[in-house]
Amino acid sequence: MRILVIEDEKSLAGFIEQTLRQHGFAASVATTLADARSMLGQPYDAVICDRRLPDGDGLDLVKELRASGNNIPILMLTALGLPKERVTGLEAGADDYLPKPFSLFELLARVKALLRRSGGPAGLTLEAGNVQLDTLHDTVQIAGKAVPLGKREVVLLRHLLQRAGQVVGKDVLEQALYGDTDDKSRTALEVAVHRLRKLLSNHGASLSIVTVRGIGYLLDESSMSEANAG
Questions:
Q1: To which H or E segment does residue 197 belong?
Q2: pLDDT at 100
Q3: Which CATH architecture has domain 2-117?
Q4: Strands (DSSP E) along 113-188, which ranges?
Q5: For the chain, what are the domain ranges?
Q6: Residue range 125-229 in CATH 1.10.10.10
Q7: Is residue 230 predicted with pLDDT exceeding 80?
Q8: pLDDT in tens, 115-131
Q9: Most buried of 24, 79, 172, 201, CB within 10 angstroms?
């Protein structure tokens, strides 16, 4: 799922982008309305838009999108949080309104709620082999049965499923799991991969996590099939 973040405060935009990426969204950032208009030539599943931007009011973009028949879910972010200002935003076509300052967890919850209400894009469920991940609810099924996974295992599985059959670099996975915190260690990612690998195996997944030494990991179905056949 692709989210466009339109925010000119670079530090805030970075925090939002990182939070979205850690929860499986492909986030892009535009810092001006001009950039946003250009980027919206590509398909996105939702927009997070500030109001006060260097080249205008974010509501102008909302009105343009609605006038053109574009019903993409839009969450407005703004320091203009008075009730009448929220009403103005909603009447302009925004789907939700989140005043600053706000919690990144609330932002994430509101984005997921918008996607649910809109019926969600085609791809809310990631699937490979007999493994399915509902990216809105962070729930996993293997061979049709619900499997409880911890938060980090879900994040790791999401990133591997998004590029099933392709190598995902260690740096990408470490950033997704730990961001820029001090939780990272030389073996932290390996431990997380080991836990997920064991869970997949114990619950009969048709996928295996292959280690590509010095580079990263990939989800592969053929190696598991060959092992089962043997």
A1: helix 188-202
A2: 87
A3: 3-Layer(aba) Sandwich (3.40)
A4: 125-128, 131-134, 139-142, 145-147, 168-169
A5: 2-117, 125-229
A6: yes
A7: no
A8: 877 655 444 678 888 99
A9: 24
